[in-house]
Amino acid sequence: MGHGPQDKDAPLFQVTRGAPGPEELAALATVLLARAAAPGAGPSAAPVAVAPPRPRPPRRRTRYIAPGAWRRAA
Question: Are 20 and 28 in contact (CB under 8 A)?
Fold first, then answer.
């Protein structure tokens, strides 16, 4: 007997590490069921199109400015 969707006695999820209490398991089940019931939770019919990133313009290279150049410019 497999644990497929036809098996009514199969658990919905299994804890593989730790020892959660009944309150923690209830909270986990609530979150999972709320997420499954949320709009758009199922697989979408078409993949969402994502625009490719626009290329950035090349950075301008500034020429070297000496530390005392501001005095000579004034």
Answer: yes
List, for residues 21-54, the tens digit of each pLDDT value. 999 989 988 988 888 887 775 665 667 778 888 8
Its pTM surpasses 0.70: no
CA proximity to 12, closest of 26, 1, 55, 73: 26
The per-residue pLDDT for range 29-38, each reduced to its tens digit, is: 898 888 888 7
3-state secondary structure 7-59: CCCCCCCCCCCCCCCHHHHHHHHHHHHHHHHCCCCCCCCCCCCCCCCCCCCCC
**Closest by alpha carbon to 32, among 48, 45, 16, 14?**
14
Residue pair 13/28 in contact (Cβ under 8 Å)? The answer is: yes
